[in-house]
């Protein structure tokens, strides 16, 4: 019913164009005023309705043709009307086709946005950021994906002998990387159920990713275990975290030999390192979204050392936020990679109750 009413309205508009055509004479040509209702009909009602309006417009143009008043042959006027119908109908088909394609694109985008929204909710459902404070540690994190879904991840969980930290980066971006992070989180949670040490956990994670993921995908990661005196760690091809000592201001980069990413080789060759983590010390870990950013590219290491030294006395959340702000830099430059940051400050002993796992 609505389409019929619109069609009647457009026909009335065409009658008005015919009246205008009749009173203005041969000059100027008002064919455009016939074409506007034709285009509207094709765009909003469909090609069939557009062709019908084209026929009505051609008939109106034939009836109201100003040449009729000067004795022009009806056959010539009829040919002119047929030519106008051809033009009007061609325009209706073109406009109707383009409008239909545009509606299809909008529907596909709406479905894509819906699917991404569902995927984001599922992705976020694995991530718990509302965690309780940990006695002895000041913990903070920031995570900024470059697209709707990201491939950077963080996982922090109470372990039998301390606090476990994993920060990593999946090869690639977007949906595939986000799905891969689900596999990483599941592997970490499964491994933590029977945690016996970083070495075994790293081997289990590597085996799960090597056999359970496409061959072209892998994950760089830093695995750390914070106990009452040290940080035990394995660096699997990840950007080295920085540890700044409170006693003398020294900044140590946490790297280990044979830092091959997870999922590349069936046997993980990584070795474990250990460094003292005394009261007042700060551990800052981040992904290559920081080091490869436009703002820090070429001088990221120096910038992060300087930032950690300058912000050393601040809380962990302030330091993590400062790293994000430094990486994002000039708003005119778009973010090219996901960014994840974790900051831990030793406040004292690590006698903390067992906590539920939380991850990002």
What is this entry, summarized?
Helix 1 packs parallel to helix 3 (47-63). The protein is of the alpha+beta class and 360 residues long. The chain is built from nine helices and eleven strands.
Report on this model:
With 360 residues, the chain is α+β, with helices and mostly antiparallel strands. It folds into two domains: 2-118, no CATH class; 130-359, Phosphatase 2c, domain 1 (4-Layer Sandwich), CATH 3.60.40.10. Helices cover 47% and strands 18% of the residues. It has helices spanning 2-24, 31-44, 47-63, 74-125, 174-193, 198-212, 288-291, 300-310, 316-328; strands at 137-144, 152-159, 162-170, 219-226, 230-236, 242-244, 251-253, 273-276, 282-286, 339-346, 358-359. The strands form two sheets. The chain has a six-stranded antiparallel β-sheet with strand order 8-5-4-3-2-11, with helices on one face. A five-stranded antiparallel β-sheet has the order 1-10-9-6-7. Residues 350-360 have low confidence and may be disordered.
Write the layout of secondary structure elements.
Elements: H1 2-24, H2 31-44, H3 47-63, H4 74-125, E1 137-144, E2 152-159, E3 162-170, H5 174-193, H6 198-212, E4 219-226, E5 230-236, E6 242-244, E7 251-253, E8 273-276, E9 282-286, H7 288-291, H8 300-310, H9 316-328, E10 339-346, E11 358-359
Antiparallel strand pairs: 1-10, 2-3, 2-11, 3-4, 4-5, 5-8, 6-7, 6-9, 9-10
SSE succession: HHHHEEEHHEEEEEEHHHEE
- Helix count equals 9
Low-pLDDT residue spans: 350-360
In CATH's first tier, which class of the largest domain applies?
Alpha Beta
Please provide the count of β strands: 11
Q: Going across the major beta sheet, what is the strand order?
A: 8-5-4-3-2-11
Structural class: alpha+beta
What is the straight-line distance between the termini?
53 Å
Shape: elongated
């Amino acid at each position: 019913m609505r389409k019929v009413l619109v069609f009647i309205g457009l026909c009335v508009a065409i009658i008005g164009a015919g009246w205008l055509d009749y009173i203005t004479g041969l000059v100027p040509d008002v064919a455009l005023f016939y074409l506007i209702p034709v285009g509207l009909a094709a765009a909003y009602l469909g090609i069939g309705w557009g062709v019908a309006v084209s026929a009505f417009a051609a008939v109106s143009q034939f009836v109201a043709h100003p040449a009729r008043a000067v004795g022009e042959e009806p056959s010539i006027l009829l040919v002119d009307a047929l030519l106008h119908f051809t033009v009007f109908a061609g325009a209706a088909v073109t406009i109707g086709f383009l409008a239909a394609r545009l509606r299809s694109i909008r529907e596909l985008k709406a479905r894509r946005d819906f699917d991404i929204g569902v995927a984001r909710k599922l992705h976020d459902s694995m991530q718990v950021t509302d965690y309780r404070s940990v006695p002895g540690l000041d913990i903070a994190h920031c995570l900024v994906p470059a697209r709707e879904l990201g491939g950077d991840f963080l996982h922090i969980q109470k372990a039998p002998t301390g606090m476990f930290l994993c920060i990593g980066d999946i090869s690639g971006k977007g949906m595939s990387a986000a799905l891969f992070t689900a596999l990483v989180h599941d592997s970490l949670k499964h491994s933590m159920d029977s945690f016996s040490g970083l070495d075994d956990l790293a081997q289990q994670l590597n085996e799960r990713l090597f056999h359970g993921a496409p061959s072209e995908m892998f994950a760089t990661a830093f695995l750390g275990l914070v106990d009452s005196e040290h940080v035990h760690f394995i660096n699997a091809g990840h950007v080295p975290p920085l540890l700044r000592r409170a006693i003398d201001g020294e900044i140590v980069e946490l790297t280990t030999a044979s830092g091959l990413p997870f999922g590349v080789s069936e046997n993980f060759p990584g070795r474990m390192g250990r460094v003292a983590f005394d009261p007042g010390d700060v551990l800052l870990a981040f992904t290559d979204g920081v080091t490869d950013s436009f703002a820090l590219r070429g001088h990221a290491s120096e910038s992060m050392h300087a930032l950690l030294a300058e912000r050393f006395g601040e809380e962990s959340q302030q330091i993590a936020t400062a790293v994000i702000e430094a990486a994002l830099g000039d708003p005119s430059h778009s973010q090219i990679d996901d960014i994840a940051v974790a900051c831990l400050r030793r406040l004292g002993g690590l006698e903390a109750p067992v906590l539920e796992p939380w991850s990002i």
